[in-house]
């Protein structure tokens, strides 16, 4: 029976949980990013906020970069900590700038994504990742 008050950490269990979080959060974010990628590829008039003042096309491109490419890196566990940085920035802008005046129920999803990205920034990608294989290879 599992002791609910045990404070020791099993590294394999922790890495499995991090893997599940990485794959889940990356898959969910990629689904958001693909609709933006389609908007970018379609051309025509882009209807996208420009919260940083860099232009609608540049703002959309930055969002696609974070939501699709960086999420893919999270999915495979490559450069995980680095990949979380654009995602954290994207969520901070979404929550506090784009939806800053909106009620909490509108911001809630962005805050949850933000919390998971901060968690992955702190923990890294775990044992079941390309990062782990690279770091293991570099140790010898």
Automatic annotation (TrEMBL):
User: Where does it reside?
Assistant: Cell membrane
Q: Name one Pfam family in it.
A: DoxX
InterPro entries, A to Z: DoxX (IPR032808), DoxX-like_oxidoreductase (IPR051907)
Q: Where is the signal peptide?
A: none
Regions annotated as coiled coil: none
As for family, the record states: Belongs to the DoxX family.
Its recorded name reads DoxX family protein
Which source organism?
A: Flavobacterium bizetiae
Taxonomic placement: Bacteria, Pseudomonadati, Bacteroidota, Flavobacteriia, Flavobacteriales
């Amino acid at each position: 029976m599992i002791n609910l008050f045990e404070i020791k950490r099993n590294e394999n269990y922790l890495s499995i949980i991090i893997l599940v979080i990485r794959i889940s959060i990356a898959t969910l974010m990629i689904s958001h990013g693909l609709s933006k990628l389609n908007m970018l590829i379609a051309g025509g008039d882009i209807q996208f906020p420009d919260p940083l003042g860099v232009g609608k096309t540049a703002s959309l491109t930055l969002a696609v970069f974070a939501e699709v490419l960086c999420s893919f890196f999270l999915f495979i566990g490559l450069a995980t900590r680095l990949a979380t940085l654009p995602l954290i920035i994207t969520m901070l802008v979404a929550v506090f700038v784009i939806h800053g005046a909106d009620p909490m129920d509108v911001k809630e999803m962005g805050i949850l994504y933000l919390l998971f990205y901060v968690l992955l920034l702190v923990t890294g990608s775990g044992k079941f990742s390309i990062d782990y294989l690279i770091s293991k290879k570099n140790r010898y």
